[in-house]
Amino acid sequence: MLGKSERLKDRYLFDVTFKIGKTKKQKLSSKHLLLYYLFTKKGHPACMPKTAFIVGLKVDKRATQRNLVKRRMKASYQLIKKKLIN
After folding, report:
1. Torsion angle of alpha carbons 67, 73, 77, 79, nearest 10°?
2. Could you tell me which residue, 5 or 43, shows the higher pLDDT?
3. Which residue has the higher pLDDT, 38 or 66?
4. Triad 37, 13, 30: Cα angle to 5°
5. If you count Cβ atoms within 10 Å of the first and of the last residue's Cβ in the chain, which end, N or C, has fewer?
6. What is the mean pLDDT of residues 19-35?
7. What's the CA gap between 62 and 14, in Å, rounded?
8. 39-53 pLDDT per residue, tens
9. How high is the mean pLDDT of the chain?
10. How does DSSP classify residue 35?
């Protein structure tokens, strides 16, 4: 589970991430995954990026299956988190 300081929770942060990701082409996409990201300013005191995992209804209509996908994405993020910091 992600710590509170690592979660992207506020609605305005979601909106900023989507807006900047679409206009400045800060996104990665494939057939099954769409990733929006923001860069922090250099020298920013936050050592960890804030993250959120969203799975849409196109994946599956059942909430249990969408939650399974989110758990797997979080687990893979935990594995590569140290590489992202460096």
Report:
1. 100
2. 5
3. 66
4. 30
5. C
6. 77
7. 24
8. 656 555 555 667 888
9. 78
10. E
- Pick from 53, 57, 60: which is nearest to 75 by CA? 53
Gyration radius from the chain CA atoms: 14
Residues belonging to the chain: 86
Beta bridge partners of 29: 34
The amino acid at 55: V
First to last CA, the chain: 21
SS3 9: coil
Residues near 86 by beta carbon (within 8 Å), at least 6 away in sequence: none
Average pLDDT rounded to a whole number, residues 28-39 = 74
